[in-house]
Fold each of these.
Amino acid sequence: MNSSGNSTQLKPTARRIVEQAARLFADQGYDLISMRDIAKACDIKAPSLYHHFSDKQSLYQAVLQAVFAQQNAEIAEVFVTQMAAEEKLHQVILLSARKISSDHVFRQLLWRELLQNDPERMQFLAEEVMAQSCLQLQEILQQIQPNSLQTDSHFAITSVMGLLLFHFQLGAMRQYLPGAQALHQDVDYLAEQIFHMIKSGVVYAPPQRINDK
Amino acid sequence: MNSSGNSTQLKPTARRIVEQAARLFADQGYDLISMRDIAKACDIKAPSLYHHFSDKQSLYQAVLQAVFAQQNAEIAEVFVTQMAAEEKLHQVILLSARKISSDHVFRQLLWRELLQNDPERMQFLAEEVMAQSCLQLQEILQQIQPNSLQTDSHFAITSVMGLLLFHFQLGAMRQYLPGAQALHQDVDYLAEQIFHMIKSGVVYAPPQRINDK
DNA sequence: GTCTATACCGAGATAGAC
DNA sequence: GTCTATCTCGGTATAGAC
């Protein structure tokens, strides 16, 4: 359990509220969680919450802000290392996989936001949460592929996101799908597979050129 | 707008209710849609719904059943053609992409179910909805890859699912991510890219052997 | 900053007439 | 098979004491 909103510049009680609310919202969703539920988790009564947040929506916004800012900070760390591009991609995927698989709160909230597909929130998510990682990922990918070909880096980036998110969201369904083995519970193994699929997709046989810039 | 529950063996009014409910549930989710909302969409009053379904949960179950059965039937058609394995994979991905991108109701309900991650429902989804397509996909993939290597077919299958689902769920966020172009709104183009990524992932350099059977 | 008490609303569901 | 009327519950949010 991580990234449950250690956002700074919030007073300690507000911080605790956001932390608890994040866990509950992630788990059961906005509608199923009542202000009473959140209050109970914080050992206070519901009306006290309104001293810290004007209403339920504001609290939810604060939760998203906190969780995604936290995630953003942690993911950024992945990119600082100095290695060959391919090994860098490998590490980025491995560490992102560990992060996303272990951080249930972040993953669920992200999945929920993608469900809504609200334009404003998508812009916020993309620009404030994803953009940094995506740009650095783009750079790595362009270093890996042969100079002569230009594969679709936007497609590659979103595929990395998609594979990471989907494989770790699959959870309880995985065991019922064909060919499932104990192996597939192993985060590092899945990360390895994702790395190879992205790498081969980028390196081999791009279907067509694209004016990437 | 498709697959909105043309389930047979339901009386016509019940069928209409399921159809409308599917659209509403997919769009706004179980909790946000009231029985009154559904009734209004059917031009009846809320209590009349209880003549056809014992409660809200039962109606939701009927919706899932109808939408997923429909989807299952449509996807199954994709596999009947006779072609070389690689071309077959190509077609399967292309047609699945068109289906999943156009069927907003199915995609949203599936995404919502994956959010809950309830073991029983995951088993239902996997076995009743996914299993057929997955097994046939598995067969195709095994025909494509060189006999000498055994790649992880479970990983490949779930990656196909993940890429298809994610890329078409991305919707409004896509335009805010690096490198987005008008191209990426084109279903067939994305399908092409997914096909190539899966193909190269399966054909080239499997990271390690696996006892697949 | 937290509480009790409460207003207000809309939800799911049922009874019983037609 | 559909309706009107109604019950009951739990939700968000506010007022005002401490």
Amino acid sequence: MAHWLLKSEPDAFGIENLKNRRNQTEPWDGVRNYQARNMMRDQMQVGDLGFFYHSNVKEPGIVGIIEIVSAGHPDPTAFDPHAKYYDPKSDPDHPRWYLVDVRFVRDLKRTISLSELKDHADDALAGFPLVRKGNRLSIMPVTDQQWEFILGLENG
DNA sequence: GCCAACGTTGGC
DNA sequence: GCCAACGTTGGC
């Protein structure tokens, strides 16, 4: 089982929104980045767990845990001319963009802030894309060691 | 609001 | 294939 981190701006869709969805489940749509697309399409598996990360807020950080509940499949919002993330270059016969469905698992007891994570950028979290300067990836892999380390911070 | 860093586009 | 221009991300 692999681990992931998924970013979202809570102004658009935060973990509170996810909790309020039917079955606390939501398609993670609107991703328009090839690296992130490839991970959803090719690597994510049902049962994988992910951190839910809030970006573009006063205190960016990890706020909860989600589970991947579907394999990658085409993102229908790319086909919809009225959708915000419509992409005319994607069509159902040759989909360009993919998504996975995610389900709320639990809140963290506290937000583990980006600044706290960066404190470990040179040791336990060395190589973790999130703490690298200029990182813009909205979906990234988390190694087992990084996952356990970050979970350990929750009680610290 | 600023701006550095990044990914994408398109001319050549 | 190169790379300048552009739009976006996202921390601060």
